[in-house]
Design a protein that fits this description.
Elements (H helix, E strand, L loop, with lengths): L6 E2 L10 H8 L12 H14 L3 E5 L2 H11 L5 E6 L3 H4 L4 H6 L2 E5 L8 H7 L9 E8 L12 H13 L3 E6 L2 H8 L3 H5 L4 E5 L10 E5 L1 H13 L8 H13 L4 H17 L3 E2 L9 E6 L6 H10 L2 E2 L1 E2 L4 E5 L6 H15 L1
Parallel strand pairs: 1-11, 3-4, 3-5, 5-6, 6-7
Antiparallel strand pairs: 2-8, 7-8, 9-10, 10-13, 12-13
Bound molecules: pyridoxal-5'-phosphate.
The site of pyridoxal-5'-phosphate has 13 residues, from helix 3.
């Protein structure tokens, strides 16, 4: 067993609030947010609306809820949602598009979570009563299962043209939009201008303990407010957690570049190790996937051996592991992790 604190690379959701963030939370002004009375939440919502270039924003408990209230507000039961086959809304939200909104998913292929406008055009259903009605396109940026991949603004703009041709809405699952923005040098609004609704998370790389937001027109956010209540997401003196999100927006955005550098360093070192397959050039932000050769073990057995060395990663397939860098992992931790992986694979 390692004698120092574990290096937890399972996800960027594992970050813990720093003493300064806790201080901001402890002193936050609060009120009953179901009545709209929480000044800290109101400040956060205004801040997010302006950051994302939208009329209004709403604080919600999680990224999954942000996506699902956006879906519910912009679809009818029997509608179809166009999304990538590796998308978070499809794999990791407990079947919610069907369960909560009565929608089917039309899943597209594409390298590392990214599809193109032609694929969308081909997937739009004819307006014949045999078919589900295409209603909403969901883009995930960065793309989690795509390895933290970044969409180009141009690809999104081309998809918006198809959406306009067919009167479809567009939702951005921007759980890690700030990672995309920092890594690409593009302002968040360069991406968000093409979307009717946008979600973003504070509890991933930004390091807040809880919470996400969804932004859109004032009218859409009013509708979403109702569905947030329906789905059980109305919170009371939640300014105490929203203060962590405000702190994160103030202090933890630019530093995402450190996480990206750490992920690239890790990927480059992994590529040098025998028994590991990874394309380091595809690592653009803070998420990386790699495969271990079967003669070295399985994804699970390697994850277990690494854990004994104090390095925590997720086995996410028979041979596949995931590592995610974040603000509680330093450059020195990455060097320790690389040394541990080397020992395990020997
Ligand atoms: C791309 C993406 N969207 C949405 C979510 C959901 O966030 P939450 O875990 O807060 O529900 C995640 C979580 O990891 C994610 O990676």
């Amino acid at each position: 067993m390692a004698d120092t604190a574990p290096i937890d690379l399972r996800s960027d959701t594992v970050t813990k609030p720093s003493p300064a963030m806790r201080q901001a939370m402890a002193t936050a002004e609060v009120g009953d947010d179901v009545f709209g009375d929480d000044p800290t939440i109101n400040r956060l919502q205004e801040r997010v609306a302006s950051l994302l270039g939208k009329e209004a924003a709403l604080y919600v408990p999680s990224g999954s809820m942000a996506n699902q209230v956006s879906i519910r507000a912009q679809t009818q039961p029997g509608d179809e949602i166009i999304a990538h086959q590796d998308s978070h809304i499809y794999h990791y939200e407990a079947g919610a598009p069907a369960g909560l909104s009565g929608c089917s998913l039309r899943l597209l292929q594409g390298d590392r979570g990214i599809y193109d406008a032609d694929a969308v055009r081909a997937a739009v259903r004819p307006t014949d009563s045999h078919f589900a009605q295409s209603a909403l396109i969901v883009v995930e940026n960065t793309h989690n299962r795509g390895g933290g991949s970044i969409w180009s603004v141009e690809a999104i703009a081309a998809i918006r043209d198809v959406a306009n041709e067919h009167k479809l809405k567009m939702h951005l699952d921007g759980a890690r939009l700030m990672n995309a923005s920092v890594a690409s040098g593009r302002k968040p609004t360069e991406y968000t201008q093409y979307f009717d609704t946008v979600s973003m998370c504070f509890s991933k790389g930004l390091g807040a303990p809880v919470g996400s937001a969804v932004a859109g027109t004032a009218e859409t956010i009013r509708r979403i407010h109702r569905f947030r209540k329906m789905f059980g997401g109305g919170m009371r003196q939640a300014g105490i957690i929203a203060a962590g999100a405000l702190y994160a927006l103030e202090h933890n955005v630019e530093r995402l570049a450190d996480d990206h550098a750490n992920a690239k360093r890790l990927a480059a070192a992994l590529a040098e190790l025998p028994g590991i397959s990874i394309e380091p050039d595809t690592v653009e932000t803070n998420i990386l996937y790699f495969d271990v050769d079967p003669e070295r073990g399985t994804g699970q057995s390697v994850a277990e051996s690494l854990r004994e060395q104090g390095v925590w990663m997720l086995a996410i397939g028979p041979q596949r592991l995931r590592a995610v860098t974040h603000l509680d992992v330093s450059a020195e931790d990455i060097e320790r992790a690389i040394a541990a992986i080397g020992r395990v694979l020997k």
